[in-house]
Amino acid sequence: MRRRVATLIVATTLLALAACGGGEADGPVGRVQAQQMPAASTAVETGRALDLSIAGDGQFVWRTDGGQTVYSREASLGLSAAHHLVNRSGARLMGTPPGAGDAAALAPLEVPERMPPRVTTRVSMEFNLDSRLSVTDFGFTPRIDLSNARTYNNATSVCVFDAKGQPVALTLYVQKFADDQWNVYFTANGKTVAGTAEDPQPVATVTFRADGSIPSPASITLDIPVTVNQYGAQTLPIAGLVIDLSRATQYGSPFSVTDLAQDGLATGSLVSLQVESGGGLTAEYSNGQRIDRGRIMLARFAGTERFMPTAQGWQQVSGAAPVITAPGLGLNGTLRTGAVETDAQLRSQTGH
């Protein structure tokens, strides 16, 4: 009689779990009774960056295909087609989104494999023009010959990006017009920005104070035309590009460039994913960007709870809700990369 009652309790539990958003694919496997979470096993060294183990009592939190929450200490991670971090059974690893506090609601952690490009809107240039140099604007037509270095004083280049992330070589030419005054010319992939190829025109004449400081204007706005890049393809125009010259100087020392910065980006592919001991995720992309991708959170149980094994993890069926914290807080432990635990008990009971 007792065995029959126990069987009825398990069957009723299965029906209740299914009614709460579960499904046969995520439900407990076979006629097994609720049980305690298995004890931690020994982590095996793998050297794989996305194999994680926990030095402590915590459990990874997972979201199954059917939307259920399950727990397991086994975490050999990969990326799904939807860019989620998943375990070998496809359950999504849960944590807090980028920029959210540790008290934020848990969500599946995402790591996009590509970063979209970003068009350049601003370029900052810091350089010194040598006040001792002679005038090179003699009033001829054309005023400058970009192929003849004797018709200007100095030049420097910076790479900017159009809306597709295509690089455009933006080159600055400076030509001394008079004491404390300099003509400023620009080309984009060799194409003059103002005037014509035969008769380039300055986009501005910059005037410095008598002591060589504070240029005026301090910024210039350019409209970069369509150009042809080194592969023979057309680049997109870049409208309203701001050139910040506020840190330029004109002192009696040689021409030098101390900073060239711009805010655009080429498209980037995922190069690596760093997992910190405290759960932080940092993705590095081929365009040099390092992006916060959230934080892994861990669950810790009191030890009196009961769980049912499913194909994707242990599903809680009784007891108090776990305490969810970041790794390293409380007694849940810290994360370690390059090693993984195997949940042999879960595998033996689910066949996965």
Structural class: mainly beta
* Helix residue percentage: under 10%
Shape: elongated
Number of helices: 2
Distance between the termini: 33 Å
How many strand units? 29
> Beta-sheet strand percentage?
35-45%
Mean pLDDT: 89
Rg, nearest Å: 31 Å
Contiguous low-pLDDT stretches (5 residues minimum) are 1-29
How would you characterize the overall build of this protein?
By secondary structure, the protein is mostly beta strands. 7% of the residues lie in helices and 40% in strands. It has helices at 2-19, 344-350, and strands at residues 44-45, 51-55, 59-63, 69-72, 75-76, 78-79, 85-86, 92-96, 107-108, 114-115, 122-130, 154-161, 167-178, 181-188, 191-192, 204-207, 219-224, 238-244, 249-251, 256-262, 268-275, 280-285, 290-296, 298-300, 306-310, 313-318, 323-325, 334-337, 339-340. Strands 3, 4, 8, 9, 10, 21, 22, 23, 24 and 27 form a 10-stranded antiparallel β-sheet that branches. 34% of the residues are buried.
Summarize the structure.
With 352 residues, this protein is mostly beta strands. It has helices at 2-19, 344-350; strands at 44-45, 51-55, 59-63, 69-72, 75-76, 78-79, 85-86, 92-96, 107-108, 114-115, 122-130, 154-161, 167-178, 181-188, 191-192, 204-207, 219-224, 238-244, 249-251, 256-262, 268-275, 280-285, 290-296, 298-300, 306-310, 313-318, 323-325, 334-337, 339-340.
